């Protein structure tokens, strides 16, 4: 993927992967935002992560 363009479908996949990882790997809530940001960076190749996207991913 080029840049930080992420489709709605991609967002759903990222959020689902995040929640699954949190449960399976027992990631503490204090590390959620950084973990989600790294997940997005790995997926998009972008250095910056949209704050609103990050908040949506980590929302309970």
Structure, described:
The chain is mostly helical. It has one domain (8-58). Helices cover 65% and strands 0% of the residues. The protein has helices spanning 8-25, 32-44, 51-58. Helix 2 crosses helix 3. The chain is globular. The relative contact order is 0.22.
Q: Which features would summarize this protein structure in a list?
A:
mainly alpha, globular
DSSP summary: helix tally: 3
Please state the overall shape, judged from the principal axes of the Cα atoms.
globular
Q: State the total count of DSSP E strands.
A: 0
Major β-sheet profile: none
Arithmetic mean pLDDT:
91
Topology pattern, helix = H, strand = E: HHH
Our estimate of the beta-strand percent is: under 5%
Structural class: mainly alpha
Give the fraction of residues assigned to helices: 55-70%
Poorly predicted ranges: none
Rg estimate, integer Å: 11 Å
Distance between the termini: 27 Å
Provide the domain count: 1
